[in-house]
Amino acid sequence: MSDTVEYHSHMSVTSHSSTGAMHAEVHLTHVHTPQEESSIVSLGANEAADVADHFDIEISCDAKERALIASLRRYLRPPSAPQCLFTRLSATLDQCCLYDADDEQ
Description:
Layout: E1 5-17, E2 20-32, H1 57-60, H2 63-76, H3 83-104
Antiparallel strand pairs: 1-2
């Protein structure tokens, strides 16, 4: 019997816009062995990791992985809100202004 444990993760993201669709997939496999446990540091509830301990994309990822991360960031953090949100917000504000106008009369 092997003492290793494999963890598999899959993420799929599809974005549709007027210019077309973007699809990105990420498959991750992590093999955990008992020897790795000695290198894992756990933090208590009131402890925080040092800022220098963050994941550095430029060092840890190749060009293809960096491009995938950039496309996921563009999808998850768009530079502006989608038009449907602007429409709903505008309708809500119009509705509020109508209520305010009725209250003043």
